[in-house]
Amino acid sequence: MLFDLDQRTATLAVGEFSSFALGPRESTDGGGSGIWRAQLGTHWHNELRQRATAEHAAAAEFEIPIAGDIVHRGWRISLNGRIDQIIRPSAPATIATPAGSRHAAAAAAAVTVLREVKSVTRALPCDEAELRRDYPEYFIQLAAYVALARNGLLRPVEAPAFTPLPPRDPTVAAQIRGELIFVETGAGLAQSIAHLPSEEALFRAQLDRIADFLDLRLRARERLRGLRYRPAFAQPRPGQESTLAELAGTFARRPLVLFEAPTGFGKTGVLLEFALGQLKSGHFDRALYLTSKSTGQLQVVGTLAAMTAPPSEAAGATPAMTTATAAAATTPVAAWHVRNKAEHCVNATFHCVRDNCSYLAGAAERWPTSGLARFYLDERHRRDLDTLRAAGRDARICPYEITRAALAFNDVWIGDYNYVFAPRNRGLFFEQAGFLAARTLLIVDEAHNLPSRVADAYSHTFSAADAYAVRDELHRVRPAATLVSAWDHWCHFLQQLERTDALGAATEDDARHLLAEVSKLVTSVSVDYAALGPHAADALWSVPGLVEDFRTNTLPQLWWVPRDGQLALTCLDAAKAIGTTLREFGGVVLASATLTPVDGFSTACGLTDVPTQRPPRPAPAAAAAAAERDSLPLVEEGASAARSRARPDRFGALNKRDTKKLYKQVTSAADLLRVEEARDAAGPALLRAAAPWRDGSYDVAFDLRVDTTYQQRARFYAATAETILGLQRAAAAPVAAFFPSYAYAEAIRAELRQAAPEFRAALQPRVRDLAAQAAWVNESLLMADALFLVLGSSFAEGIDALGGRITYAMVVGPALPEVNAVQRARLEEISRRDGDREAAFRQVYQIPGMTKVNQALGRLVRAPGQHARIVLHCRRFAEASYLNLLAPEYRQGTEITSDAELARWLLPPA
Predict the structure, then answer these.
(1) Percent of the chain beyond pLDDT 70?
(2) Distance between CA 547 and CA 544 in Å, rounded?
(3) What is the pTM of this model?
């Protein structure tokens, strides 16, 4: 739906109009069964078209556009669609009837019949009342077509001589008749139900729903215009006071901003204050705030609530609040934190099939009397997950349906990357009524994770064990034998796979063929998904989407077998998908503490023009001539032809025709310049937040005594262990040591047990729970001499408890990714694309590895007054290709080439 609140207009398709609901949408089929029903529906549409052609010949027309405006409650609603069949009136003179009935026959022959065809899975014929109850949207759709046709808005496709019926002719209503034809998908039996005058009430009620929605959106717009909120920081730190203005100014010039602010800077508050300002100014209808972790999303929710809470609820509020504070009135911002579907579920087992869930079946009928509209009518109503689940239980309505129904009325949507970038999940946002990406501000926090997360969304894994488990479920519910057989072939194929770094072309073709066969049957065979079980149902539903992805997805993929019986389809580079999605939005801010190096991040997000092939370098003797030739703009003819001619010395050397051609080229160069300027304006702008309190807060030493490459590190285990001991003695407190892997950390811990048995080194556990991680950090700071942390893990990137508590730390080598089949394939893909293997190595290995180092070090200084002394323990850190990838505050330091130099550096600073 597209709408203009100022003009009070809305435009939508008739199908969208008929299914629109301010609440749950009742689905007649669960999950993937809707796909096969649509396929069969197309088949029966074609079959009925042939029957109508045979019966009515030239009087039958198909897929006729129909459009028009309807004014309702002060809104002009524009509807458009295509009616499946129209049977035109036949000529009265051709009908032979008795004289007394001639007038009636002529009137009957003058009727235009509108037919809409709908496929259903139930047995037909069926009681009409039951069909009207279960498929109200179909009858609304037909009523809309009849209303538009009776207003003379019918337009034939291939009958230019046809004259529409006059809009105010009193005989119009009698000349238009509607029929809804239900077709049973299994047997093809058809049942026709005539449109009744009483169904006009359904049509009017649907107009009311649309008007209600538009009124609420208008109310939301007015609320935003009067938006009042507190600043994110009552007392800004040095650097914070100017950052908001700098961000707004940069965004005004170029609405695609890379915003880099150090850990602990408070960028969440800056981003939210910026977003609220943009919403209040009317630049955007809503803001999307995405992060990769639920903890970050909760922080956004808490910060936003504090900025818009009434004075009595504000943090630190007391009865003795000053008059100025009490006068700081705020306006509630309608914000919704979107959690994944499974977290909403109130059943013991998450298996989202209508026939299997009493919270889904009949939810649309229960919604009007449920009182759940309060979740979007009252901006201050609690929207946390526990409240949603409790309300859903009480009303016997799925809590996720509450989220889906309320989302359109909220100003700020907070959630995971997947709701925008993952094909399987983005429908929740993009299919919301009134959602328009061009009128939406997108904020992506922790954006350094975006390339890998989107690549994961386009990657898939299959295992023989899982496939056989699905086969067992299929045998239990006994669907069509053809589907069981096709899945059996897929199981056998997976079982025979042997480990390989790249699947052969023939084997890949076999896999594609087998998946296509399964997809064809999943979309054409009825399956009892409620009885099938959640794991098997999800496995089947995913196949048609995957096969469609094969057809449309152009991202590079590696088909490989990580271990026997397992097939992996790994996306090697999601840059194209990311860049395409980002450019859909009216404004974008990508924020992180570690966007450095910016060129690498921009390339990984598809924000730079990457040549398909780097041209060969010309020989030195030809360089000047090539530069001279290339200075002439290439317009209106092939590049090779234009480059083959040298630029003339002057215009007079040309004849009239060539002068005219050259003039066209010269004047067109201005157009090319404008295109180039527009391309620059569409590119990203970089803003680095000022944090003067970080200046001089790091004292860095580059330890050149050791080589931590995989082949050489074992030679220096003793030196690494001794350096950690020296670091702890100098600190007289626990120190942190960051390692590229668990295996490396374990090896050094074993070395320490031999060299200093009394030394207590605590290795981070393999736990995902944030509370458990924080508890381990707190305990280790009390009980251990050193915390061994793994670079790139949540301990190194997400734990904020180290700032100010660890003052001595050591990074044991750059955390380059493991050399495996995927990384080798990525290296080859980027090398082939760019023609530069050195640049490809930087993109695939060096940038990810050094980003992990920057992330870890950034956690050590998070507030003014904090300091850290850092040992970068590998000679590679001093090499230009690695040094330039460090954040600027870590690039200056002391080079350590001997044990004596290290001992002097470890002395307390003067």
Answers:
(1) 82
(2) 5
(3) 0.83
